[in-house]
Protein backbone atom coordinates (compact mmCIF):
# COMPACT_ATOMS: atom_id res chain seq x y z
CA UNK A 1 0.00 0.00 0.00
CA UNK A 2 1.31 3.44 -0.85
CA UNK A 3 0.29 7.07 -0.95
CA UNK A 4 1.56 9.21 -3.82
CA UNK A 5 2.57 12.58 -2.44
CA UNK A 6 2.61 14.37 -5.80
CA UNK A 7 -0.59 15.26 -7.63
CA UNK A 8 -0.33 14.25 -11.29
CA UNK A 9 -3.98 14.88 -12.04
CA UNK A 10 -5.22 11.68 -10.41
CA UNK A 11 -5.42 11.83 -6.64
CA UNK A 12 -4.40 8.81 -4.61
CA UNK A 13 -5.90 8.39 -1.18
CA UNK A 14 -5.19 5.71 1.42
CA UNK A 15 -7.78 2.97 1.84
CA UNK A 16 -7.84 -0.69 2.96
CA UNK A 17 -5.83 -3.00 0.74
CA UNK A 18 -8.77 -5.17 -0.40
CA UNK A 19 -10.88 -2.18 -1.36
CA UNK A 20 -7.88 -0.67 -3.12
CA UNK A 21 -7.31 -3.81 -5.19
CA UNK A 22 -11.00 -4.40 -5.93
CA UNK A 23 -11.45 -0.85 -7.11
CA UNK A 24 -8.44 -0.45 -9.36
CA UNK A 25 -7.29 -3.92 -10.44
CA UNK A 26 -7.37 -4.40 -14.22
CA UNK A 27 -9.04 -7.59 -15.42
CA UNK A 28 -9.96 -8.99 -18.81
CA UNK A 29 -13.50 -7.75 -18.15
CA UNK A 30 -12.45 -4.15 -17.52
CA UNK A 31 -14.58 -1.68 -19.47
CA UNK A 32 -13.21 -0.42 -22.75
CA UNK A 33 -14.71 1.79 -25.43
CA UNK A 34 -13.70 1.76 -29.11
CA UNK A 35 -12.18 4.89 -30.57
CA UNK A 36 -12.20 4.45 -34.35
CA UNK A 37 -11.41 0.78 -33.95
CA UNK A 38 -9.01 0.98 -31.00
CA UNK A 39 -9.96 0.28 -27.39
CA UNK A 40 -9.64 2.84 -24.62
CA UNK A 41 -10.01 1.47 -21.12
CA UNK A 42 -12.23 3.53 -18.87
CA UNK A 43 -11.19 4.35 -15.33
CA UNK A 44 -11.54 7.24 -12.91
CA UNK A 45 -7.91 6.96 -11.78
CA UNK A 46 -5.41 5.54 -14.26
CA UNK A 47 -2.42 6.10 -12.01
CA UNK A 48 -3.67 3.80 -9.26
CA UNK A 49 -5.06 1.40 -11.83
CA UNK A 50 -1.68 0.84 -13.47
CA UNK A 51 0.32 1.19 -10.24
CA UNK A 52 -1.65 -1.67 -8.69
CA UNK A 53 -0.71 -3.98 -11.53
CA UNK A 54 2.90 -2.87 -11.32
CA UNK A 55 2.97 -3.39 -7.57
CA UNK A 56 1.54 -6.90 -7.93
CA UNK A 57 3.87 -7.84 -10.79
CA UNK A 58 1.11 -8.30 -13.37
CA UNK A 59 2.74 -7.92 -16.78
CA UNK A 60 1.27 -4.91 -18.54
CA UNK A 61 1.80 -2.98 -21.74
CA UNK A 62 0.36 0.52 -21.39
CA UNK A 63 -0.48 2.33 -24.64
CA UNK A 64 -0.94 6.10 -24.37
CA UNK A 65 -3.40 6.75 -27.18
CA UNK A 66 -3.77 10.02 -29.07
CA UNK A 67 -5.34 11.03 -32.38
CA UNK A 68 -2.09 10.84 -34.31
CA UNK A 69 -1.48 7.32 -33.04
CA UNK A 70 -5.01 6.26 -34.01
CA UNK A 71 -4.43 7.45 -37.56
CA UNK A 72 -1.06 5.69 -37.71
CA UNK A 73 -2.67 2.50 -36.48
CA UNK A 74 -5.24 2.64 -39.26
CA UNK A 75 -2.38 2.57 -41.78
CA UNK A 76 0.06 0.30 -39.95
CA UNK A 77 -1.22 -3.24 -39.43
CA UNK A 78 1.52 -4.30 -37.01
CA UNK A 79 1.03 -1.21 -34.86
CA UNK A 80 -2.73 -1.72 -34.85
CA UNK A 81 -2.27 -5.27 -33.59
CA UNK A 82 -0.04 -4.13 -30.74
CA UNK A 83 -2.45 -1.37 -29.74
CA UNK A 84 -5.43 -3.73 -29.70
CA UNK A 85 -3.60 -6.38 -27.68
CA UNK A 86 -2.23 -4.05 -24.97
CA UNK A 87 -3.58 -4.69 -21.49
CA UNK A 88 -4.17 -0.99 -20.82
CA UNK A 89 -4.93 1.79 -23.32
CA UNK A 90 -5.31 5.24 -21.78
CA UNK A 91 -6.68 8.48 -23.31
CA UNK A 92 -3.48 10.48 -23.66
CA UNK A 93 -4.54 12.92 -26.39
CA UNK A 94 -7.18 15.64 -26.46
CA UNK A 95 -8.69 14.21 -29.63
CA UNK A 96 -9.35 10.88 -27.95
CA UNK A 97 -10.98 12.56 -24.96
CA UNK A 98 -13.17 14.73 -27.19
CA UNK A 99 -14.18 11.67 -29.22
CA UNK A 100 -15.24 9.90 -26.03
CA UNK A 101 -17.27 12.95 -25.02
CA UNK A 102 -19.01 12.95 -28.40
CA UNK A 103 -20.08 9.40 -27.55
CA UNK A 104 -21.44 10.46 -24.17
CA UNK A 105 -18.43 9.31 -22.13
CA UNK A 106 -16.78 11.80 -19.79
CA UNK A 107 -13.10 11.02 -19.41
CA UNK A 108 -10.10 13.11 -18.40
CA UNK A 109 -6.82 13.06 -20.26
CA UNK A 110 -4.11 10.98 -18.71
CA UNK A 111 -0.88 12.30 -20.29
CA UNK A 112 1.63 9.50 -20.57
CA UNK A 113 4.45 11.66 -19.20
CA UNK A 114 2.46 12.30 -16.01
CA UNK A 115 1.52 8.65 -15.61
CA UNK A 116 5.15 7.62 -16.08
CA UNK A 117 6.34 10.21 -13.55
CA UNK A 118 3.84 8.98 -10.99
CA UNK A 119 4.91 5.37 -11.51
CA UNK A 120 8.58 6.30 -11.10
CA UNK A 121 7.69 7.75 -7.72
CA UNK A 122 5.81 4.58 -6.83
CA UNK A 123 8.84 2.49 -7.87
CA UNK A 124 11.10 4.64 -5.70
CA UNK A 125 8.74 4.31 -2.73
CA UNK A 126 8.47 0.54 -3.14
CA UNK A 127 12.16 -0.08 -3.84
CA UNK A 128 11.38 -1.45 -7.30
CA UNK A 129 13.84 -1.19 -10.17
CA UNK A 130 13.20 0.55 -13.45
CA UNK A 131 14.78 0.94 -16.86
CA UNK A 132 14.87 3.81 -19.37
CA UNK A 133 15.48 3.03 -23.04
CA UNK A 134 15.59 5.72 -25.71
CA UNK A 135 16.74 9.22 -26.57
CA UNK A 136 20.21 10.41 -27.49
CA UNK A 137 23.12 9.47 -25.20
CA UNK A 138 23.05 12.95 -23.62
CA UNK A 139 19.29 12.97 -23.14
CA UNK A 140 19.13 9.45 -21.70
CA UNK A 141 21.88 10.25 -19.20
CA UNK A 142 20.39 13.61 -18.19
CA UNK A 143 16.86 12.22 -17.76
CA UNK A 144 18.14 9.38 -15.58
CA UNK A 145 20.30 11.78 -13.54
CA UNK A 146 17.34 14.05 -12.92
CA UNK A 147 15.29 11.23 -11.41
CA UNK A 148 18.24 9.77 -9.54
CA UNK A 149 18.86 13.16 -7.94
CA UNK A 150 15.22 13.42 -6.89
CA UNK A 151 15.17 9.87 -5.50
CA UNK A 152 18.74 8.90 -4.48
CA UNK A 153 17.70 5.34 -3.59
CA UNK A 154 16.04 4.76 -6.95
CA UNK A 155 17.18 1.58 -8.71
CA UNK A 156 17.42 3.07 -12.20
CA UNK A 157 19.32 1.92 -15.28
CA UNK A 158 19.24 3.74 -18.60
CA UNK A 159 20.31 3.06 -22.16
CA UNK A 160 20.14 5.54 -25.02
CA UNK A 161 18.27 4.62 -28.18
CA UNK A 162 21.25 4.69 -30.54
CA UNK A 163 22.75 1.39 -29.46
CA UNK A 164 24.44 -0.47 -32.36
CA UNK A 165 22.58 -3.61 -33.51
CA UNK A 166 25.48 -5.84 -32.50
CA UNK A 167 25.12 -4.64 -28.89
CA UNK A 168 21.38 -5.27 -28.68
CA UNK A 169 21.67 -8.93 -27.59
CA UNK A 170 23.76 -7.84 -24.61
CA UNK A 171 21.17 -5.22 -23.66
CA UNK A 172 18.38 -7.77 -23.88
CA UNK A 173 20.34 -10.25 -21.77
CA UNK A 174 20.81 -7.61 -19.07
CA UNK A 175 17.15 -6.70 -19.21
CA UNK A 176 16.12 -10.32 -18.72
CA UNK A 177 18.64 -10.78 -15.93
CA UNK A 178 17.63 -7.74 -13.87
CA UNK A 179 13.84 -7.89 -14.44
CA UNK A 180 13.07 -4.19 -13.82
CA UNK A 181 9.51 -3.71 -12.63
CA UNK A 182 8.96 -0.57 -14.74
CA UNK A 183 10.34 -0.18 -18.29
CA UNK A 184 9.93 3.14 -20.09
CA UNK A 185 10.71 3.18 -23.80
CA UNK A 186 11.16 6.49 -25.62
CA UNK A 187 11.71 5.59 -29.26
CA UNK A 188 8.71 7.34 -30.78
CA UNK A 189 5.62 5.83 -32.42
CA UNK A 190 5.46 3.20 -33.85
CA UNK A 191 8.97 2.03 -33.05
CA UNK A 192 8.55 1.99 -29.28
CA UNK A 193 5.28 0.01 -29.36
CA UNK A 194 6.73 -2.55 -31.75
CA UNK A 195 9.90 -2.87 -29.66
CA UNK A 196 7.87 -3.45 -26.52
CA UNK A 197 5.70 -6.09 -28.19
CA UNK A 198 8.79 -7.87 -29.51
CA UNK A 199 10.67 -7.99 -26.21
CA UNK A 200 8.20 -7.91 -23.35
CA UNK A 201 8.35 -11.67 -22.97
CA UNK A 202 11.83 -11.14 -21.47
CA UNK A 203 10.28 -9.44 -18.42
CA UNK A 204 6.79 -10.94 -18.14
CA UNK A 205 6.01 -9.29 -14.79
CA UNK A 206 7.02 -5.78 -15.80
CA UNK A 207 4.99 -2.71 -16.71
CA UNK A 208 6.05 -1.41 -20.14
CA UNK A 209 5.16 2.07 -21.41
CA UNK A 210 6.09 3.90 -24.59
CA UNK A 211 6.82 7.45 -23.44
CA UNK A 212 7.70 9.21 -26.70
CA UNK A 213 9.64 12.41 -26.01
CA UNK A 214 9.34 12.32 -22.22
CA UNK A 215 13.07 11.82 -21.78
CA UNK A 216 13.70 15.09 -23.64
CA UNK A 217 11.45 16.93 -21.22
CA UNK A 218 12.91 15.30 -18.12
CA UNK A 219 16.39 16.09 -19.42
CA UNK A 220 15.46 19.74 -19.83
CA UNK A 221 15.99 19.72 -23.60
CA UNK A 222 12.33 20.48 -24.29
CA UNK A 223 9.49 21.91 -22.24
CA UNK A 224 5.85 21.03 -21.81
CA UNK A 225 3.03 23.38 -22.71
CA UNK A 226 1.87 25.86 -20.06
CA UNK A 227 -0.69 24.47 -17.65
CA UNK A 228 -3.53 26.52 -19.17
CA UNK A 229 -3.00 24.92 -22.58
CA UNK A 230 -2.68 21.44 -21.10
CA UNK A 231 -5.89 21.80 -19.15
CA UNK A 232 -7.78 23.05 -22.20
CA UNK A 233 -6.68 20.29 -24.57
CA UNK A 234 -4.33 22.59 -26.51
CA UNK A 235 -0.97 20.98 -25.78
CA UNK A 236 -0.76 19.92 -29.43
CA UNK A 237 -0.85 23.59 -30.46
CA UNK A 238 2.11 24.39 -28.22
CA UNK A 239 4.10 21.51 -29.69
CA UNK A 240 3.37 22.80 -33.19
CA UNK A 241 4.47 26.30 -32.15
CA UNK A 242 7.72 25.01 -30.67
CA UNK A 243 8.36 22.48 -33.44
CA UNK A 244 6.78 23.79 -36.67
CA UNK A 245 8.35 20.93 -38.61
CA UNK A 246 5.65 18.76 -37.02
CA UNK A 247 2.97 20.24 -39.30
CA UNK A 248 2.92 17.22 -41.58
CA UNK A 249 2.32 14.93 -38.62
CA UNK A 250 -0.37 17.28 -37.34
CA UNK A 251 -2.37 16.68 -40.53
CA UNK A 252 -3.56 13.54 -38.79
CA UNK A 253 -5.64 15.70 -36.42
CA UNK A 254 -8.18 17.05 -38.95
CA UNK A 255 -8.41 13.59 -40.52
CA UNK A 256 -9.16 12.16 -37.09
CA UNK A 257 -11.77 14.90 -36.48
CA UNK A 258 -13.55 14.12 -39.75
CA UNK A 259 -13.67 10.40 -38.97
CA UNK A 260 -14.87 11.18 -35.45
CA UNK A 261 -17.78 13.23 -36.81
CA UNK A 262 -18.70 10.51 -39.28
CA UNK A 263 -18.72 7.94 -36.48
CA UNK A 264 -20.65 10.10 -34.01
CA UNK A 265 -23.51 8.23 -32.35
Structure description:
The protein is an alpha/beta fold and 265 residues long. The protein has a single domain, classed as Rossmann fold, CATH 3.40.50. Helices cover 48% and strands 14% of the residues. The protein contains 14 helices and 8 strands. Helix 3 packs across helix 14.
Q: What is the fold's blueprint, element by element?
A:
Elements: H1 17-24, E1 32-35, E2 38-41, H2 46-56, E3 60-65, H3 67-75, H4 77-85, E4 88-91, H5 94-102, H6 112-126, E5 129-134, H7 137-150, E6 155-159, H8 168-178, E7 182-186, H9 191-199, E8 207-210, H10 214-218, H11 227-231, H12 235-242, H13 247-250, H14 252-262
The CATH architecture assignment turns out to be 3-Layer(aba) Sandwich
Largest sheet: 6 strands, parallel
Name the overall outline: globular
The helix-and-strand class reads alpha/beta
Query: Strand order of the main beta sheet, please?
Result: 4-3-8-7-5-6
Find the CATH topology. Rossmann fold
Between the first and last Cα atoms, what is the distance in angstroms? 41 Å
Q: List the secondary-structure elements in sequence, H or E.
A: HEEHEHHEHHEHEHEHEHHHHH
Number of helices: 14
Radius of gyration using CA atoms only: 18 Å
The proportion of residues in beta strands is: 5-15%
* Unreliable parts: 1-29
CATH secondary-structure class: Alpha Beta
What is the strand tally?
8
